[in-house]
Design a protein that fits this description.
Layout: H1 16-26, H2 29-43, H3 47-56, H4 70-98, H5 103-124, H6 133-143, H7 148-182, H8 194-199, H9 207-211, H10 227-236
Helix pairs in contact: 1-2, 3-6, 4-5
Amino acid sequence: MLGMLQEDRVSNFQDPIKRFKLKADTGHQGDKTVYKMMQEVAAATPLTKTLDRWLYRTPIDGSLPNDEGDNKVVERFVAKYLSLHEQLQQQTVERMAVAGMDPERIEKVKAMQQGNMKKCKDWLQPDGEPINRVRAALLFIESYRELPMLAWPRQLLDQVVELEESMLMFRFSHARMVERMIGRRVGTGGSSGVDYLDSTLQYRVFKDLWKVRTMLIKKDALFPLDTRAAKRFYEYQGYTGSAPGK
């Protein structure tokens, strides 16, 4: 339903549909009814794919997916964003040097920065493919969320993150409850108990919604959008007045 892939689950975790099928084959009519319902749910479009399709349609810097030259607009936005990211990282290193911080520590920071930058580039352009428009749109929405057209999409994305955060908090609370009751013994279902429950905390369904936060640049350091492109965002909203600052 949400879109969790089997390969993203805990290792050796049996596919839930297979488990329901096993019970349906050997159980009562109620188990067969539940299995049929689970098949229908599994066949439906998961929320992750629905979000991706919706994000893909996002106008990035005023350009829609079907607009002529959209690829170049998206590439230009991503290039400017990554360039600014590198500039800000360099400024951080320079401030550390001016402050007289230990050179070894500065080198460690630089290594971490380079690692983060590589992850960002690989995330936006995986396996050397063209820019991932869905992820670029997510970065654009999160960065310019105060634009009228992007305010409510950003609220929706935040609600999805809050949904998964609630699930993570439930998993943590469940693990602590089990630890309080049975300690570190084998679980009642034959699992490793608390160790298994704790291992589930590292997994995410909406991974991109979490990863994009590593890339975000603070508002006062962001570059302004192209005037024409920014104006189009107001036009999409039916805004008839002048944009702020005009």
